[in-house]
Design brief:
- This protein has 367 residues and is of the alpha/beta class.
- It has two domains: 3-61, DNA polymerase, domain 1; 66-366, TIM Barrel.
- It has twelve helices and 14 strands.
- The strands form three sheets. Strands 3-4-5-6-9-10-11-12-13-14 form a ten-stranded mixed β-sheet. Strands 1-2 form a two-stranded parallel sheet.
- Helix 1 (10-19) crosses helix 2 (24-35).
- The longest helix has 15 residues, at 131-145.
- The structure holds S-adenosyl-L-homocysteine and iron/sulfur cluster.
- Iron/sulfur cluster binds at residues 111, 113-115, 118, 120-121, 170-171, 204, 224.
């Protein structure tokens, strides 16, 4: 099997080249060709000796995951479904805004964590994505979008993806090594050169992995909170039983020592009647009192048989105002790409479930 060079960060590629008897600057050149120029064919790497190009062509390849479907929404949002093995697909979404272009990247096929309101969680879990499959999502987006004029400015933008959020399918910190290697590529000046502040990992709160991320690759951090008490969070985000709120808040404080921003973003899905009352908002203020933070409220995006409802707009407003009056910066996530099911938590992809969860649910429903 040819070795996929999208699987390497620069350090790894340099080590591999050393094994081949090639100098570090050769690795750097190839790395730049693939990530900065989007070249997948060694023959096009014109400043590299023909002998090395031939050697690489014989043993290696540059292969992003195959595109199964590509959609464009009326509001400019793009969505790709990537094929990652039989019965498995993951989704990637690009959200253009005036001052930035954000790519929402997946880290796993499905998710093993079973948050009750999440359609990815509902579909079960198959496997972790490889580094090439994670980086490949950015590779495809960057190099396909850079040939198109920007919708607002009309100009062709050589680097349309300015921000990455690890908020697609999967729990990034449950696929730690591959995600960190992929982040290394995103941050590398010889590749995408994104700043740490513009790359965000979103986690449901795997405490030990948050500490490891702070050490290894401190990018911006978003934490999916969704409930202000352990009793409620245990139900909505079951990993809370393992890492309850007090531990999670302490981990957030530790993370901030290394973080590129001086706040944590708390994501909070508003579920009608479940966690969206004024009492919940007040309890939330208490819960986060020791953590410098901002809030990102996400009105629940429905999917079939979810069992939850969208929050009413007056409930959303009241919730938001209570936080704002207490001095917090609050954003409410706009629903983008709704017409192509590209909104948060609607990313369905396709998961050949290996966890047995999907079968269990079918049996339960039939009983
Ligand atoms: N596993 C990570 C990242 C992926 S989910 C995490 O949980 O943080 C990205 C965000 O979308 C999370 O905050 C998640 O809780 C939220 N989300 C999941 N399902 C949703 C839904 N149906 N509606 C709105 N947001 C949802
Ligand atoms: Fe997994 Fe995040 Fe969905 Fe929870 S919300 S099931 S952690 S993808």
């Amino acid at each position: 099997m040819p070795q996929n060079l999208l699987d390497f960060d620069l350090e790894g590629l340099t080590a591999r080249f050393a094994e081949l008897g090639e100098k570090p600057f050769r690795a750097k050149q190839v790395f730049r060709w693939m990530h900065q120029s989007g070249v997948a064919d060694f023959a096009q790497m014109t400043d590299i000796a023909k002998s090395l190009r031939d050697k690489l062509a014989g043993m290696a390849e540059i292969r992003a995951p195959g595109i199964k479907l590509a959609h464009a929404s009326a509001d400019g949002t793009r969505k790709w479904l990537f094929e990652v093995g039989v019965g498995n697909g993951v989704e990637t979404v690009f959200i253009p805004e005036e001052d930035r272009g954000t790519l929402c990247v997946s880290s796993q096929v499905g998710c093993a964590l079973e948050c009750t309101f999440c359609s990815t969680g509902r579909q079960g879990f198959n496997r972790n994505l490889t580094v090439a499959e994670i980086v490949g999502q950015l590779w495809v987006a960057q190099h396909s979008l850079k040939t198109e004029p920007n919708r607002t400015t009309g100009a062709v933008d050589p680097r349309p993806v300015s921000n990455v959020v690890m908020m697609g399918m999967g729990e990034p910190l449950a696929n730690f090594e591959n995600v960190v290697a992929a982040l290394d590529v995103m941050l590398d000046d010889h590749a995408y050169g994104l700043s740490r502040r513009r790359v965000t990992v979103s986690t449901s709160g795997i405490v030990p992995a948050m500490d490891r991320l702070a050490e290894r690759c401190p990018v911006a951090l978003a934490v999916s909170l969704h409930a202000p008490s352990d009793a409620l969070r245990d139900q909505l985000v079951p990993i809370n039983k393992k890492y309850p709120l007090a531990e999670l808040m302490a981990a957030c404080r530790r993370y901030l020592v290394h973080a590129p921003r001086d706040f944590i973003t708390f994501e909070y899905v508003l579920l009608a009647g479940v966690n969206d009352t004024p009492a919940h908002a007040r309890e939330l203020i208490e819960c986060v009192r020791d953590v410098p933070c901002k809030f990102n409220l996400i009105p629940f995006n429905p999917f079939p048989d979810s069992g939850y409802d969208k929050p009413r707009s007056d409930a959303q407003r009241a919730f938001r105002e209570i936080l704002q009056d207490a001095g917090f910066v609050v954003t409410t996530r706009k629903t983008r790409g709704d017409d192509i099911d590209a909104a948060c938590g609607q990313l369905a992809g396709r998961v050949a479930d290996k966890s047995g969860r999907v079968l269990k649910r079918i049996h339960k429903a039939a009983a």
